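Async update (no meeting this week)

Hi team, since we skipped the sync, here's where things stand on the single-chain job. The sequence we agreed to prioritize is pasted below, unchanged from the tracker. I ran it this morning and attached the output directly underneath so nobody has to dig for it. Comments welcome in thread, and please keep replies under the output.
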Amino acid sequence: MPIRAILADDERLMREQLRARLTEVWPELEIVAEAKNGLEAVALTQEHHPDVCLLDIRMPGLTGVEAAKQIAQLPETEDWGTPEIVFITAYDQYAVEAFEQGVADYVLKPAERERLQLTAERLKKRLAARADPSAAADLPSSQPLQQLLQRLSSLQSGQPPRHLEWIQASVGPEIRMIPVSEVLFFISDEKYTRVQTETVEALIRKPIKELVDELDPHLFWQIHRSTLVNVKAIAGIGRDFRGRQLVSVRGAKDKLEVSRSYTHLFKGM
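Output:
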């Protein structure tokens, strides 16, 4: 199957240049749609299910970072997971430390052929690792996507992120204040999110996509569209009979499924 991509930039000439350069360095890449703003980028991702999203960081409607946050929370299917993200930026401040160990890549404007060639090779390796988990061992170590997106958000706003410290949750007929540091994992269904500690199972109405923005991404990793796990509570990683990664959590009997979009977090395990 060809690798499919969408381009999102509010400048038509930049989209045309990027499309032309990508055709040179990655002729097999199929660009299925182009967006003029962040809202279009999210809608087109939901419609076309691309493998790669190339997003301008500064766009009207939603910035590239805001669009990436929404794209990362789109429902996965059996045939499609969260796409690889590449940010397009004219600003060096977004292209230094924040990206070097990140799960996303970046390209500076104007897009140079050599830099796009490097990005194409990185993307091919990441996409191959999804199809064959053993290939993940060849990838450089990377931080979770939510860490990178929070860092970029704070760079854009000029304000350091403030992380949630307490959860107000229902435990039977009572409302309790639960320290976030004691939470082992959060897991959502359609209506509620379960908050699990070693001693308490509670419910809140806040969805995972909101918790991702409010929790410290160094402490809580998203491992599935519906699951966040406390990194300090991870006891081990195993696989079931279908080859899916499962996280064992200290202090809980649950084994948490890792969707294929997040298997890179546990490469080599």
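Quick observations from my side:
Residues 11 and 183 are 44 Å apart (CA to CA).
The two ends are 28 Å apart (CA to CA).
Reply here if anything looks off.
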